[in-house]
DNA sequence: GTCTATAGAAGGATAGAC
DNA sequence: GTCTATCCTTCTATAGAC
């Protein structure tokens, strides 16, 4: 593959990523992507046979990023509190660089439920699960975290990080009207959310 | 307007609501809606000139429900803690009956940013704001809630309620694999989320 | 590999009969 | 008010020249 060829393919992929992230599969137009890449539609089909193929390539890359990036955190040898602080710090920073990613993922997983099975199959949940239980057994007792409340806690942590980006349009609209700065809010949130969770689970 | 006519219009509206909630504006097909209502496409256009008109009618109704239903809570004479408990109880129950609503709203507000301005304009934010400040002035001191942290707190409350429905596909998929029941999780969440928030803000 | 031109399918919208 | 038939635009995809 020549350098030039690689550049074109990459340009297409980047443009497709941007357009799909913004418009989703249903709303995106091949013409938009071509314009964005500074080429014509036919070339899109030359590199990625169909719109479906192109979308799929984009989705696989993006979905991978989202989930693989934070799984290793669980393995490392830190306290639960350290992990929570680290998660909010890194995850919110990640979403600041990729603010449209959560809505994009959610929409595609609704549109095409088969994807969820594939995503979940790639995660070795039982291993993550037992790692978590072994590493933090004493802390679970200390914080009064039970088998019953773990899903509540996990989804709460995810919610506090992801929701501001999903509802960005509403939140930033409201904040503007009330004299708050959305970016400052996001920066402050890295600490606020961690404090919030730790306070909530402390006996 | 005859009874029969009213029934047809209503049937169309209900079918449109269902299809738009599931597929969004971009993904929905007039043919789908017609099939769903047991009529043909031409009749859709007879009642609601265009797809845009039909979508708009559905959106206005739904967006109204979401925001008007919970604004009055702020006015009533209850403690902050009572309001928080009431909110989670009612809001999660509401979303159990309308699980697709959050994603639908978010998508449309992203697709058409003009809507946000309209939605916000309909809310008298300054009034809500001053009501909140007056009613809970002492509690804000007691709980150490400041002008700076109010948006953090408000968005956290919204997040804990709404996120499980937005990410339902992923969460219920994971839970199934791990032996949890998603509906039981939602039921338990009404209390869990309230306890969680109150614990987090208590000095 | 890249372009122009166009085929072909899908979907929104309308005409006209009943 | 409701239907069938059809128009027209939009969009994906391909053919064929360079």
Task: Describe the protein's architecture and organization.
The structure is a homodimer of 203-residue chains. With 203 residues, chain A is mainly α. The first copy, chain A, folds into 2 domains: 1-57, Arc Repressor Mutant, subunit A (Orthogonal Bundle); 70-202. Chain A is 82% helix and 0% strand. The first copy, chain A, has 13 helices and no strands. Chain A has helices at residues 3-27, 30-37, 41-47, 51-68, 71-75, 80-97, 101-111, 114-122, 125-135, 137-143, 150-166, 168-178, 182-201. In chain A, α11 (150-166) packs antiparallel against α13. The longest helix of chain A has 25 residues, at 3-27. The first copy, chain A, is globular and about 60 Å long. The termini of chain A are far apart. The model of chain A has no long low-confidence stretch (mean pLDDT 94). Chain B binds a DNA duplex (18 and 18 nucleotides) through α1 and α3.
Please outline what is shown here.
With 203 residues, the first copy, chain A, is mostly helical. Chain A is 82% helix and 0% strand.
Measured on Cα atoms, how large is the radius of gyration of chain A?
A: 20 Å
Number of β-strand runs of chain A: 0
Distance linking N and C termini of chain A: 60 Å
Task: Give the DSSP E fraction of chain A (strand runs of 2 or more residues).
Answer: under 5%
Could you tell me the mean pLDDT of chain A? 94
- In oligomeric terms, what are we looking at? homodimer
Q: Give the CA-based shape of chain A.
A: globular
């Amino acid at each position: 593959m020549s350098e030039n060829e690689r550049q074109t393919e990459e340009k297409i992929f980047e443009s497709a990523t941007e357009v799909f992230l913004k418009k989703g599969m249903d709303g995106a137009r091949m013409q938009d992507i071509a314009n964005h890449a500074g080429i014509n539609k036919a070339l899109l089909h030359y590199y990625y046979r169909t719109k479906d193929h192109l979308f799929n390539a984009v989705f696989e890359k993006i979905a991978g990023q989202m989930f693989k990036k934070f799984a290793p955190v669980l393995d490392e040898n830190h306290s639960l509190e350290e992990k929570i602080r680290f998660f909010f710090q890194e995850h919110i920073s990640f979403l600041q660089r990729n603010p449209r990613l959560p809505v994009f993922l959610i929409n595609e997983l609704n549109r095409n439920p088969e994807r969820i099975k594939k995503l979940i199959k790639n995660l070795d949940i039982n291993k993550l699960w037992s790692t978590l239980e072994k590493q933090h057994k004493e802390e679970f007792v200390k914080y009064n975290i039970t088998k019953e409340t773990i899903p509540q806690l996990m989804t709460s942590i995810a919610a506090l990080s992801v929701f501001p980006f999903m509802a960005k349009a509403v939140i930033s609209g409201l904040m503007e009207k009330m004299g708050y700065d959305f970016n400052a809010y996001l920066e402050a949130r890295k600490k606020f959310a961690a404090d919030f969770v730790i306070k909530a689970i402390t006996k």
